[in-house]
Write a structure and sequence with these properties.
Layout: H1 6-21, E1 24-29, H2 35-47, E2 50-54, H3 57-64, E3 79-84, H4 95-108, E4 113-119, E5 122-124, H5 126-133, H6 138-176
Antiparallel strand pairs: 1-3, 1-4, 2-3, 4-5
Helix pairs in contact: 1-3, 4-5
Amino acid sequence: MDNPRADKVAVVDEVRERFDDSDGVLLTEYRGLDVAAMAQLRRSLRAAGGDYKIYKNTLVRLAVSDLGVELDDLLTGPTAIAFVVKGDEGQAGDAAAVAKALKEFARANEALIVKGGVLGGKRLSAGEAQALADLPSKEVLLGQFAGALQAPLVKFAQLLNAVPAKFAYGVQALIDAGGSPDAPAASAEPEATPEPETAPEPEVADGGDDTPTETSEDAPVASSDDTETESPQES
């Protein structure tokens, strides 16, 4: 640019800075949109995390000439750029949400045409920009990612909770069986019952046979009549 005016230089610097700071850009053709439609489009894009700007194509070409991305064929006709704005704390913007807002507006306003864009330093075709609108939003993707990380932790927590529960079931089973957690295990064999002592058998006198001996009370008593008297001898 020979002897560029200061205002053009400022615009080129602004566009270059916006390309550098944004998480993505989508180039559109807005031919046929009136002022009210443009205002409505800007509001919907702002709600989705985007910023809609119109620059001269020649100035945009100068701004992106050193970015390594060829956009000359997209910079024809009335062109407006939807920048994907970073979060307040430098968080990544939601390119899918911005693309979805453009797609929703284009359904009711056929004059809006998405021509392509740049995402992650790579050029997007018109079809790729449309496919970007069909992706889940950043919040949904983060929720799915968090769920994938949380699943193993939930299983681990359930395992930890199951350990005391199983221990409690085991203790209760022991109590139901008649034991206690602190009591020693009962012997499986019952204690032997002592046999009653028997009286010793009476001793039998050795009489040569098994016939009991008669006592004096059983023996017959000699009668006085049966007693023979010894007569004196005759001299």
